[in-house]
Fold these 2 entries.
Entry 1:
Amino acid sequence: MNISHVLIVEQGTPFEEGAFIPLSGVKTVLGRQGNQWDPDIAFNNVFVSRKHLIIHRKNGQFFIEDLNSKHGTFLNNQRLKANEQVPLRVTDKITLANELIQLSFSANLDETFDMLPVNKSVAGHVATDCYLDPLKQEAVIQEVPYQFSGKEYMCFEYLLQNRDGFVSKEALKKKVWPERCGNAEETPDVSNEEINVLLYRIRRKTQRQICIENIRGKGYILSFHEEAGRGH
């Protein structure tokens, strides 16, 4: 199986927070759009050079190279030297434009989850206090409030109602995107990327206190990390 990799946008106009940008080409140029220049991935920021950086794919390995940009490219808070290729590793953080653009390099979890063993020490759970406030659209976990958008709250609420149980992808789509259903029997037209973005935001907002097992092509199981049940 081919393992695809993506950039996850944590911050960066015009992309939405949590957007997945596939790295499918041999070379992917990031920069700012010009009159006669259109990079593979374009950001709307004056601190981004027209040809800011390039990501190379060679024999399944990815490398990042700053193209002598004016304001620099930072990998894990270290400024890269211009025109030097540096290997990328999963979870690496890429920042541009004085941290106004923040990206994470990641494997596509939806495609690779079935290849990875579950770490039971991380995926385990204990009884955890969690309260939902539908008016504020927030969850309170161990007395710490986490606020969600409408879709995020609907998704988290439904998964929590079925805590430690399997929720099919089709059922989740119907619950979170009912406006896209023509009738009760129809499954809404929702892409895997939309679901991945939503789950990414929930994980990030709850500071990874929850574990959402992603079973490729089937559905999800929500549980709590052991650490969430312990006092601080």
Entry 2:
Amino acid sequence: MAVTTCLTWMQEKVLQNYFGEKQFSLLYKASVHGFSSKGLLERCSNQGPTITVIYAGDYIVGVYAQNNDKEEYVFITLFVFQETEISECKIGPFQLPMVFQDNFEFYVNLERKRMYISPETKEKLGLSGYISFQECEVFRCEDLLDKRRMEGVIELKEKLLSAIRTYKPYGDLVHQTRILLLGPIGAGKSSFLNSVKSIFRGHVTNQALVGSYTCGTSDKYRTYFINDGKNADTLPFILCDSLGLSETEEGLCMGDIPYILKGHIADRYKFDCTKPITPGHDNYIGSPLLKDRIHCVAFVFDANSVEHLSKEMVSKIKRIQRELIKCGVVHVVLLTHVDTLDMIMKGDLMDIYSCLPVKLKISGF
């Protein structure tokens, strides 16, 4: 059974950010490996930078050491972490074993589950009184994107790109899957599309217009074939961009959505916010084939504002969802700007779906 930390996801992220975007690897947990100073030192010495986390009721006392060589004297960062606030002070120099032996400034007695901090240091940290604790953990601190992790990132990227290149629509009924991007004006639909095209072309491209206009920059229905710069093939999906949704009359006309889904609207049709397309229009496809239909809809939302959507916008989205179910079209949520969310670090982007802020953002869908 794997040994897990008592830190919550948020506590771990706060500490990782505070000490310079570090990745924590649990080396020692007192309740599992024993409340023994000797046992701790045997497991944790010569591991490079470490952080010791001591759980003392409603707050955490911690020790961060840049080097934990038994023989070397180093200054350590002693800190107190309560809720989301951290106070710290530098003490030492110490040899690592001295932290777990009687000394005049600070030491931890694992066997008795007690901690001594000098009155002067207590005052700096805002502590008072007798300190006992229930648990002690030690982590190795590593750079988030060291050489080993960078190799993992590159490997993961190549696997994902290969999976996309070799994807085949179900039953070979069509050669390419049509994916419609729908979302509020300014959510980042066109920017996402440009990013996808840039990745596969191997250089930056801005084919789809982007901007911050309140009425949106995509006023036409566009279908984008994605060319693969690696082998000159066209990828097995088509991205379809449209005018964004709005609470006002400036956005996509709701009456156009069934026509888009059923394949009646041709590329470059210019939307009219006040009325849907009609069968007599030059861009109207009278008898669309299966390949012309939308096979998947991606609702695109800005991760920083998705929980602040207006009642009118939520109502429109639910109405569209009902239409999608009626037409048998699958739909997914696509969050943009996830890298700018609080507590998200570079290393999280490898497994973004497991990150608590992202989970909370998509839980409503």
